[in-house]
TrEMBL record:
It is a multi-pass membrane protein. The keyword Cell membrane applies. Residues 22-104 form the Prepilin peptidase A24 N-terminal domain. Belongs to the peptidase A24 family. It holds the Pfam family Peptidase_A24. This is Prepilin peptidase. It is found in: Cell membrane.
Length: 305
């Protein structure tokens, strides 16, 4: 992998680690706001942040990531309405993700690309969980991020990573990463699209929609072929876990009344009782693969040799 924070002076590494975590928390707060506005139909470019209950404008003291939620005890300063713990959870998770990316990839163009991807996947998770849709804007942002940064990437010196399987033919520069990304995107996106169409043809029931397929294509671009397949398998397990939790929640079923969304994003149907959004599972699996996929693949290959 790229030089990590462990390769520099401890004091500087500690400072940069804190900086990465703070930036992650801030981006988590931003994505919370962006996702809520998309779901509520508000403009994402205009207007001040406000309480979703009473509409009061929020000031800086209300918007400090993580700190404000705990300081206000999860309630609005103005109307005392409850603020969902989802906001602070997202901020904490994004802080951890940004820190993990910095520790693994250092402060490089590759780390920047993965940090932007983390923000995109965060937005996908929040919107898809609420609306069962994946806005095309997130997909376009993912494509643009990969297209702008793939030229600066190279094959990792050890382990599995984007470009590994093409390094022998194309060298260890960006060409191998580019080829692996295209192969991963086509296999994940195209393969799942073909499987989904076949499943629907045979069972006469909805499966994955276009939004999920497009998101898998983007994930394949960033991960490449081997890690993309690992991520897809992991996403299936995470999706089943989400379905199991929703099953235990005892909420009313909506699988009989939902249809495919306007933008083509579909849902998985769990235990024939309720639908679940698959976007959060894809997002979680993609980030986990970027962070721990290489050692997991090495361990698996080691079992076969």
């Amino acid at each position: 992998m790229s030089a990590s924070l462990f390769d520099i002076a401890p004091a500087l590494a500690a400072y940069l680690s804190i900086l990465a975590a703070v930036l992650g928390a801030c981006m988590g707060s931003f994505m919370n706001c962006l996702a809520w506005r998309l779901v509520a139909g508000e403009s994402v470019l205009r207007g001040r942040s406000h309480c979703t209950a009473c509409g009061a404008q929020l000031t800086a003291i209300d918007l400090i990531p993580i700190v404000s939620w705990f300081a206000l005890r999860g309630r609005c300063r103005h109307c005392k309405g409850k603020i969902s713990p989802r906001y602070v959870v997202v901020e904490i998770v994004m802080a951890a993700v940004f820190l993990s990316i910095a520790l693994e990839y250092g402060f490089t163009v590759q780390a920047l690309a993965y940090a932007v991807l983390a923000c995109i996947l965060c937005g996908v998770t929040l919107v898809d969980a609420d609306t069962y849709t994946i806005p095309n804007g997130f997909v376009i942002a993912g494509l643009a991020t990969w297209a702008a940064t793939v030229w600066f990437m190279s094959v990792p010196s050890q382990g599995f990573g984007p470009g590994t399987i093409f390094a022998a033919q194309l060298g260890e520069g960006f060409l191998a990463v580019l080829a692996d990304g295209v192969a991963g995107g086509v296999l994940l996106g195209g393969g799942i699209l073909a499987f989904s169409l076949l499943f629907e043809q045979v069972t006469k029931r909805d499966s994955l929609g276009g939004g999920d397929v497009k998101l898998l294509f983007v994930a394949g671009l960033f991960l490449g072929l081997p890690l993309g397949l690992f991520s897809l398998l992991l996403a299936c397990f995470i999706g089943l876990a989400i379905a199991f939790v929703l099953k235990l929640s005892g909420e009313p079923s909506d699988s009989d009344v939902h249809g495919e969304s306007d933008d083509g994003s579909g849902e998985l149907e769990s235990f024939r009782t309720r639908a679940i959004p698959f976007g959060p599972a894809i997002a979680a699996a993609t980030m986990l693969t970027l962070l721990i996929g290489s050692p997991c693949m090495e361990w698996y290959v080691g079992l076969l040799m």
